[in-house]
Amino acid sequence: RRVHGGFGSGKRRSSRVDPCEKFVRFPIYCASTHYRCHILRKLSCAPNRSQPNSNSTHHTRTFATMTTEPTQLRTFYPEIEPYNSGWFTTNDGIHKIYYEESGNPSGKPVIFLHGGPGGGTDPKCRRFFDASVYRIVLMDQRGSGKSQPYASLEENTTWKLVEDIEQLRSL
Which of 4, 56, 71, 90 is most exposed, with the fewest beta carbons within 10 Å of its own? Predict the structure, then answer.
């Protein structure tokens, strides 16, 4: 028989059955997939070669499995409007970056970086955070969303993005 999936894929199982072998399930929540996961711990007895007088010892192996039962998903926070928005010119003078602030002006600052390339922020992005707790800052990165020039790759690197974030922090 063959093992299916995981790290043991393609390896043959031992035909010997360990009488002490058992699995223990520990439920956990996987935030990225919103599914309930289970950690399986395989407990088995095997001879301990480092201690000659010992008959057996317990060894533990851990496996993660995912069930198909979804947990209750969180909903978005209520819709809110920004209290401040605008553009700033980057230090190199090539791009104008769009930003907006919403939520609690004296709350914990959180900056939302959208996916890319060519993406951008939209009003739904404000709803990922609790507006009573966070000062939510949305920023359209270089060449994306409302930032100008649109779809420009000139001086568009990770280090330039970091510079833009630092420049936004100083506003």
Answer: 4
CA distances from 41 to 48, 65, 125, 128 (A): 19, 11, 39, 35
Picking from 162, 145, 157, 158, the residue whose alpha carbon sits closest to that of residue 96 is 145
Question: What is the per-residue burial (b if ≥16 Cβ within 10 Å, else e) of 24-53?
Answer: eeeeeeeeeeeeeeeeeeeebeeeeeeeee
pLDDT tens figures, 52-88: 554 544 444 544 444 555 556 678 999 999 999 999 9
pTM beyond 0.85: the answer is no
- How long a stretch of residues is the chain? 171
Contact 65, 27 (CB under 8 A): no
